Every structure is written in C-alpha cells, then in structure tokens.
Amino acid sequence: MVRPPRQSVGAIGWLRAHLFSSWFNTILTGIAVWIIIETIPGIITWAFVDSVWGDASPDTCKAAEGACWAFIYEKYRFILFGVYPWEEHDRPLIAMIIFLALVLTSCFRRAWGRPLIAGWVVGLAAVAILMWGGIFGLTYVDQSQWGGLPLTLFLATFGIAGAFPIAILLALGRRSEMPAIKALCIGYIELIRGVPLISILFMASVMFPLFLPQGLTIDKLLRAQVGIILFSAAYLAEVIRGGLQAIPKGQYEAADALGLTYWQSMRKIILPQALRITIPPMVNTFIGGFKDTSLVVIIGLFDLLMTTRVAFQDIEWRPFFVEGYVFCALIYFCFCFFMSKYSQWLERDLTRGHSH
User: Fold this and answer.
1) Closest-CA residue to 148 (of 88, 79, 209)
2) How far is CA 218 from CA 140, 222, 349, in A?
3) Which residues on adjacent β-strands are paired with residue 68?
4) For residue 226, what are the CA distances in angstroms to 128, 219, 221, 248, 297?
5) pLDDT tens for each residue of 3-42
6) pTM listed for this prediction
7) What is the rounded CA–CA span in Å between residue 356 and residue 353?
8) Which of 30-39, 57-66, 137-146, 347-356 has the lowest mean pLDDT?
9) What residues are paired with 147 via a beta bridge?
10) CA–CA gap between residue 92 and residue 85 (Å, rounded)
11) How many angstroms separate the CA atoms of 290 and 182, rounded?
C-alpha cells in the first residue's frame, strides 16, 4: 500500500490546501496573519489585562487603561430586564429560563409530538403568569414595563413561529393554478417586501389604531408582534417557494400516480423535501428577524439593544459605551451562532435520515 505524500495529508496538507493553495491565497494569508498579530494582543490587553472587574466606581475605570467591566456589573440587570420592577427581576429570569428550555427541547426531533405541545401550553402559561403576575400573590406588571432580553426573545421566537405556517400557505398560494389565490399571494408578498420593517411597525403602532372603533384598543406589544409576523412571513414565503420550485417534476407526478390529494402530496412528499433543502436560507431569515427586533424601539418598546443604550446614558458611566455594546453583541452572537449551528446539525440529520 502506497501512502500519500506527507505534503498532502495532516496539518501540512490542510495548510497547503486552504491557506497557501495559490500565490493570491498566500498573500491573503500573510495579510490576515499580520492583522491578527497587530490587533489580537491589544484586544486581549484591553479586555483582560488592564481591565476593571467587579464592583468598582466610574473613577476607578477612568483611571484604568483597559475595559470597564464594572459598568456591566453595575448595569447588567437593567440591560437584561429593562424597566421591569427591580425587586421582581427573578420573575423574568425564571420565565426566560422556562422559555429557553421549551425552545431547546423543541430543537430535538424525538421530542416532537403531543407531550411537547402540552409542555408548550403549560410552559407559556407559567411564563405569562410570571411576567404579568396579578395572581398567586404576584404583583401585576404591565406590558409597558417589559424590556431587555425577555422582550427580544419573545418577539423573535413568536415572530418566527407565527410566520412559518403563514409563509407555507403563501408559498403554496403563489404556485397555485387558481388565478385569484395566486394574485392575492403575489400581491401580499410583493407589497410587504417592498417596504421596510420600520414602516410596518409604524403602521401597526400609529396608523392601525385610527381605524379601530372608538373605545377599542389593542395592546402595542401585540400589534408589534403581528407586524413582525406578517413581515417575516413574506420573506420566508419566497424562500419556501424557491424550495418548491427546486423539487423535480417527477415528485409531483409520483404523488399523483399514488392517488394522493393535493394536500396529502404536499404534506407527505413535496413540502418535507422543499423545507429540507431551504434550511440554510430559512435560517438566514430567522437570524435576520432576530436582529430586526431591535427596530421595535421606534414604537417605544425597549428591547435588549435599547436597554443597553439607555444604560450608558448615565453621565458617570457614559464613557464606557463600548463595553455595553460588546456585552450586547456577545448575547446576540450566542443566539445567532446557536441558530446557525443547529440548522447545520438539523440539515445533516435530515439528510442522513433521507439517505436511509
């Protein structure tokens, strides 16, 4: 048995294939190494060596040359929970843990089923009781006082969950052979995609109440949530439509040959394949939707980014806004990175199941 050359296997082979495969890649690798050498030591020194940690005063931070993580220590509760009553912060924390546990459990296909649906019903009831209160001896907290990370998570998760079934119907409608249904779906998708999310939120917050009967009001948070759902559904519908178009015509013909109805063929044959091949662009839409929740600030809702900005409005701590943005960016990164990695794992898992 003849072994491959040492230059093409192991670490040397990987370096030759990925970093020094051509003169152009070699130059880019050299530039990247130079940037890393010039920046990383300074970042480490700023973030860890010369930084101030724990309970320290603003004057101590101003005297130091590194990062002031004492600002995060001082303001993290406001950044995470906004103007929710200070003495009740354990309630949104527990609600957030329950909510994240439900989301994580839903990520595993083996957990999908009636027990999970029951878990969501019970879990959401517990989250609502914890967030609103007013019963079981809990102090009532109005929705206008919700903010920070719980608000961001709720808006993003319910926005994704609510938009998904609507997007499937829109995608199917756009490919429908019935002209009226097709025209309605195309009109909706193109109209929503033609305006920014800020406009949708503005319409939901300012214009929509003007058309309601006198005396009838709908909560501002609910209106924002519906706006995000409708906006996300239009973009997601186009992603799913692309997946439907990628399915070979033979799959449709096979479903017809089996005598399946339209909805049976879509549910059992076409949609599972279309959704599997559109996982990467769907995750892009989900991640974009998660970050777009920061736009709710224009209608007076304080999401995670806005509570971070308000936190360094304190004159004493204002110079340390960089630390606040870094803390906020790390939280966003953790959630977006998890979504990205989960989509990759789900794609591999579905592909493995399909190949079997």
Assistant:
1) 79
2) 19, 7, 42
3) 52
4) 18, 11, 9, 35, 16
5) 666 666 678 888 888 888 888 989 999 999 999 999 999 9
6) 0.85
7) 5
8) 347-356
9) 302
10) 10
11) 29
